[in-house]
Amino acid sequence: MLVSPALNAALREARFDGDTPLDAAGVRAARAAAPHLPAADRYAAGGSARCRATARELGLPAPGGLGVAPTGWELGRWAGRRLDEVAAAEPAAVAAWAGDPEAAPHGGESLRGLLGRVGDWLAAGAWGGAQTPAASPVRLLAVVEPAVVRAAVIHALDLPARAFWRLDTGPLTLTTLTGRPGRWNLATGQPLAPAGAVRGAG
Q1: What Pfam families does this protein's entry cite (predicted)?
Q2: CA 184 → CA 36, 129, 173, 180, distances in Å?
Q3: Staple 15 to which of 10, 56, 116, 184, CB 3.0 to 4.6 Å?
Q4: Judging by DSSP bridges, how do beta strands 42-45 and 67-68 pair with one another?
């Protein structure tokens, strides 16, 4: 079960986030969503400030008790900048980044690299590493960046890399993958709270 983080200033401004924490509205939204969080056997969170803060406001275990989930997409020198600013300054680089899964014109990670990294975690992390899915299935809930959710869906459904750009992941939504490595089923975009509750929190 993958939960995307609450809104913060970077998400609202379409920035390549350089690790911006939640703002007050994001904190309120996460607290409103907390009663709707499904139960799990294990919990994890990505390393960004907004993932960790969202996990905390959702009532997940203290950071020391959380497992490690994949970090967001490493976008090098674009981190912290708005997409429209980068597109105006480096149109050819943005076109290459969006069109070629192997490209990393920002000096960070390519889309192919992100997909591989998240795929490796999905294949192993949900089962505790040494355990096998058949012997010991678990329910893992992880708060991860939207790009990680999208990459997990691509890997789980064996979609072409270009499909990444056709997927949207809203804040505080639940994406559920059930099954086992090599045979996943998908339920995506489930809100963690009634729509009115989340909008009202902002």
Answers
A1: His_Phos_1
A2: 24, 18, 19, 6
A3: 10
A4: parallel
Nearest to 57 by CA among 20, 21, 32: 32
| Residue appearing with tokens 């905390």 | 56
98-151 residue pLDDT tens: 999 999 999 999 999 999 999 999 888 654 544 444 556 788 999 999 999 999
Q: How far apart are CA 124 and CA 130, in angstroms?
A: 8
Q: Note whether 69 and 143 are within 8 A (CB).
A: yes
Tokens of 103: 């490209």
Report how far apart the first and last C-alpha atoms of the chain are (Å, whole number).
25
pTM for the whole structure: 0.88
CA distance 193 to 202: 13
Using the 8-state DSSP alphabet, how is residue 55 labeled? H
